[in-house]
Design goal:
alpha+beta; five-stranded mixed sheet; 4 helices; 5 strands; globular; Acyl_CoA_acyltransferase; acyltransferase activity, transferring groups other than amino-acyl groups; GNAT_dom; N-acetyltransferase domain-containing protein
Length: 120
């Protein structure tokens, strides 16, 4: 289930963001969370499976598109399709917007697309 970020999820969100490539310093993670909390164009969602928050997906909203800025899944749950499911839920939330990626998130989206194409 996709849940909109709220302040009570801050430590969990920072932990999940730390699984992403790049600078994992506490200061950088706090700055990133602050951006999601203060900039109305940045949306952060967490993925809940049973009672645990196991993933997150972060978006920067534009007029006709959104950019997938962050996607992260707890390593214990990787390979179960959680990331792909989060992407599908976000696409369902914003069906009229195009999904753009960053250098970091592009590889994941390509991997999802290749699996879909290979399933035909």
């Amino acid at each position: 289930m996709l849940l909109r970020y709220k302040k009570t999820y801050e430590k969990i969100a920072m932990g999940l963001l730390s699984y992403m490539p790049g600078d994992k310093s506490v200061k950088k993670l706090q700055e990133l969370i602050a951006t999601y909390e203060t900039d109305e164009n940045w949306l952060l969602y967490l993925w809940k499976k049973e009672e645990d928050l196991i993933g997150l997906i972060g978006l920067e909203m534009g007029e006709d598109e959104y950019t997938l800025q962050h996607i992260s899944v707890n390593p214990s749950f990787r390979g179960e399709g959680v990331g792909k499911e989060m992407v599908a839920k976000v696409q369902a939330l914003f069906p009229d917007k195009n999904c753009l990626t960053t250098e970091t998130t592009n590889a994941f989206i390509k991997k999802c697309t290749m699996k879909e194409e290979g399933a035909d």
